[in-house]
Specification:
InterPro entries: Rieske_2Fe-2S (IPR017941), Rieske_2Fe-2S_sf (IPR036922), Sol_Rieske_ferrdox_dom (IPR054716). By secondary structure, this protein is an alpha+beta fold. Helix content is 18%, strand content 35%.
Length: 175
């Protein structure tokens, strides 16, 4: 199964794998790696070139297993989040990527809510002590690079034993 779509380019147990560094040209047994990833529930979403075709700090939006997922890339990392903001369903694919207190975040275009790309945490600037977390609010999805392709594992709460997050309700309304 492959993802489709176009664009311009949870729990702690799933967040650790939700940002992946692009390969540095090392070759591995791709068929074996691909087979293992597919057995773990990963599906091929796009080519690395397709995701990187968007300028840095921009996005690519795709439909993966009937879920709208937005891929962001910054330098040598790719992140995948649900496309609709947890707060009020704003399209994150239109949001700006920014450094927010040392954390890479997407800013929702509707109400300027900031979401950490790596963890899905809602972020805000505290009165004292800098950036604070509201906890995980946005569904993030683990990604892997195998050969020249980006693979994604859609994080589904009931199947992965992870808690529901606020962005889940908008995904099924809008997605």
């Amino acid at each position: 199964m492959e993802a489709t779509g176009e664009g311009r380019g949870n729990g702690d147990e799933i967040n650790a794998a939700c940002a992946v560094q692009l390969p540095s040209g090392e070759q591995s047994d791709e068929a074996e790696e691909r087979s293992k990833a597919e057995a773990e529930g990963y599906v091929r979403a796009a080519s690395v070139a397709e995701v990187k075709a968007a300028p840095s700090r921009k996005w690519k939006c795709l439909q993966v297993e009937k879920r709208s997922v937005t891929f962001f890339h910054q330098d040598d990392h790719i992140y995948a989040l649900d496309s609709w903001c947890y707060h009020n369903g704003g399209g994150l694919m239109r949001g700006d990527i920014e450094d927010f207190g040392g954390r890479l975040a997407v800013r929702c275009p509707l109400h300027s809510y900031r979401i950490a790309l790596e963890t899905g945490e809602g972020l805000y600037m505290g009165m004292i002590g800098g950036v604070k977390s509201k906890g995980v609010k946005q569904r993030v999805h683990p990604v892997k690079i195998i050969g020249d392709h980006v693979y994604i594992k859609i994080s589904k709460p009931k199947q992965t034993n992870t808690p529901e997050v606020q962005s889940d309700c908008y995904q099924f309304i809008r997605g």
